[in-house]
Amino acid sequence: MRVLVFSASLRKDSLNHKLAAATARMVEAAGEKAELRRMNDFDMPFYDADLYTAKGTPDGAQKLADLVTGTDGMILSSPEYNWGVPATIKNAIDWLSRMEPNPLRHRTVLLCAAAPSPVGGVRGLLHLRDSLETLSTFAYPRLLCLPRANEAFADDGSLKDAKIADEFQGIVADYLKFAAAVQSR
Q1: pLDDT band at residue 184, thresholds of 50, 70 and 90?
Q2: Which tens digit of pLDDT belongs to each residue from 27-39?
Q3: For residues 11, 12, 18 and 19, what is the CA-based torsion angle, rounded to 10 degrees?
Q4: Which of 1, 56, 69, 70 has a CA-to-CA distance to 35 between 20 and 30 Å?
């Protein structure tokens, strides 16, 4: 199984990219292939129906769609901005939603967030789940949220707390089973 592990943050030292990298290692520890990418890899303008009509899908959106279509599952780590979804990932979803066939349709996703707050970005993930499920994406029921993420990572990028690392490894392993089951139907 090949899994796209994607960070929706633009910041170089993003906590969400650190979480994406940690979950990519968990995917590989479970014996699967992880393709770690970040939002900066997919340059695209803000969605504009006139631009879409005039020029079609931008290259960055097409590149993301091809990657989504070529993988067996997705793990998406997204920051929470003002209790909501960052414009970058919402914009990417809006571009992908215009494509036929829709690359997100019947795909699975594990949603993750890392935040310095005590709730770990969960509020933004709830909005993100709505946008994805509207496009017939199967969101894994559990969310992987890392509160106080600014204190959670060791220098090597691993999670400092072994209990949290074990819990997250279990969630990732369960997600991989879920993705395989959905893929096989």
Answers
A1: confident
A2: 999 999 999 999 9
A3: 20
A4: 56
In the chain, the N- to C-terminal Cα span, in Å, equals 15
Phi–psi pair at 18, nearest 5 degrees: -60, -40
The pLDDT assigned to 45 comes to 97
Q: Which amino acid is at 34?
A: A
C-alpha to C-alpha distance for 184 and 182, rounded to whole angstroms:
6
Nearest partner of 86 among 74, 78, 76, judged by Cα: 78
Residues 6+ apart with CB under 8 A from 159: 22, 146, 152, 153, 165, 168
SS3 48: coil
Chain mean position to CA 168: 15
Q: Closest Cα to residue 96, out of 131, 50, 138?
A: 131
Amino acid at 9: S
- pTM higher than 0.85, yes or no? yes
**DSSP E strands: which ranges in 69-179?**
73-77, 108-114, 138-139, 144-146
Span 82-113, pLDDT tens digits? 999 999 999 999 999 999 999 999 999 999 99
Which residue bears the tokens 């993750």? Answer: 112
Tokens coding 145? 């949220």
